[in-house]
Amino acid sequence: MTTRIAIIGGGTGGLCLAQGLRKAGIDVSVHERSRTRTERLQGYRVHINPHGSAALHECLPPELWQRFLATTGTTSGPFTFVTERLQDLMVIDSELTSSPDPASSHHSVSRISLHQVLSDGLEGVLRHGKEFVGYRREGEVVVCEFADGSTVEADLVIGADGANSRVRKQFLPEADRVDTGIVAIAGKHPLTEETRKRLPARLTDGPSMVMPRTGAGLFSAPHELSGSSSVNDETAEYDPVLFDNTSSYIMWAFAADNRRYPAGVSSLDSEGLRALVMDLIDGWDPAFKELVAGSPEGSVSRLPIFTSKPVGPWPTSNITLLGDAIHSMTPFRGIGANTALRDAQLLCRNLVEAQKTGAVRSAVADYEQRMRHYGFAAVRDSERSARQFVSENRAGRTMARGMFRFFQAVPPLKRKVFSDHGDS
């Protein structure tokens, strides 16, 4: 008997799962509240680690996998930990994190480009303008209801509708997200020949993590496109800064505990946020001020940081959750999208096998058990990194900076500790 699968939410994890199921010939539909493919796109860079690469390689048809690779950015420099005065603490060379196999390597990609690749070829599967409002059960069938009055019946419903998941709120009301008290302000600085002359190579050639002595931090990473890197630009009618996926840029994010920000920060516009960061990094190396000041108005956004809290096992049924809908995490390890892709790969593999055996419920149970283990471990690691990133503990920050300098001075130890950097 054919299992009808409905995925609520057309984000990274949901679309990857849909691609894998469709490739296997399984009856799947995706219901996305946006009216078009470009309505709610975000224009920042996302890091795909080996877990994410393996999932995309397995779930995407070969031609879309190649298209994904063609959209990724190039990075020539290492990952560097630096002080606010742009002094090296530790340099992680690319050979510690790269792999000759693209399916087990790291990639930088525009969120816009990734979404376009994942959406491609899903005609008749991906249904826009479907705002999920709730579900009801009719025997073994789940009936999903949408704001436009339409419904869809499914034998299995997968909530992949993001951190504010309505599926989760109905299915697991006890699973909630909490405010970490951390606020990030992120922006994009165009990467051109002119900006390369004005900015140091540490900022233009590779990712950098800035560790001042206390209280805040800044992460930057270039997203440099080769001549063939951009996909068909469907966003030309939108903001040329936030939504452009054809131009190279340096993405940066400043973060601190919200007590470091002035009252009323939530009401500031892009220009005000940019000016605020300039004030907060006063005394840092001038290159950082150049990076922030050169970010066009409209490219700077405020991002309050929330995180999920682990929940215990729940009875397996014909409803389950994927990605941020169940294990939303802070962005400080760069693993949220990768964990969602890992979910998609595991659940797809299980459901494809279940089509042969008919044991769909067992396939979902196995997925949920394994997903809870690695998913909430990622949540904990991510929150721990976030707390360290904005720590006001001067002694602890000094110790961490000293540790990085020690690793840099002992290359064999650095290789042992950081050979899996970013893969967790």
Overview of the structural elements:
It holds the Pfam family FAD_binding_3. Keywords: FAD, Flavoprotein, Monooxygenase, Oxidoreductase. GO terms for molecular function: FAD binding; monooxygenase activity. InterPro entries: FAD-bd, FAD/NAD-bd_sf. Residues 3-171, 316-380 form the FAD-binding domain. The protein contains 14 helices and 17 strands. With 424 residues, it is of the alpha/beta class. Mean pLDDT is 89; it is low at 228-243 and 420-424. It folds into two domains: 5-75 and 110-178 and 308-388, FAD/NAD(P)-binding domain (3-Layer(bba) Sandwich), CATH 3.50.50.60; 180-306 and 392-420, FAD/NAD(P)-binding domain (3-Layer(bba) Sandwich). The chain has a seven-stranded mixed beta sheet with strand order 5-4-13-14-15-12-16. It has a five-stranded parallel beta sheet with strand order 7-2-1-11-17. A three-stranded antiparallel beta sheet has the order 8-9-10. The longest helix is centred in the last third of the chain and has 30 residues, at 360-389. Strand 4 (79-82) and strand 5 (88-92) form a beta hairpin. It starts with a strand and ends in a 6-residue tail after the last helix.
Short overview:
Pfam families: FAD_binding_3. Helix content is 37%, strand content 22%.
Which key phrases capture this entry?
14 helices, alpha/beta, 5-stranded parallel β-sheet, single chain, FAD/NAD(P)-binding domain, 424 residues
Helix content: 25-40%
- The CATH topology of the largest domain turns out to be FAD/NAD(P)-binding domain
Q: Walk across the major sheet and give the strand order.
A: 5-4-13-14-15-12-16
The low-pLDDT segments are 228-243, 420-424
CATH architecture of the largest domain: 3-Layer(bba) Sandwich
Instruction: Give the biggest beta sheet.
Output: 7 strands, mixed
Question: What is the structural class?
Answer: alpha/beta
Mean pLDDT, rounded to whole units?
89
C-alpha Rg, in Å? 22 Å
The structural domain count equals: 2
| CATH-assigned homologous superfamily of the largest domain | FAD/NAD(P)-binding domain
What's the CATH class of the largest domain, please? Answer: Alpha Beta
- Helix tally equals 14
Oligomerization: single chain
Total strand segments: 17
Shape: globular
Distance between the amino and carboxyl termini: 38 Å
Q: What percent of residues are in strands?
A: 15-25%
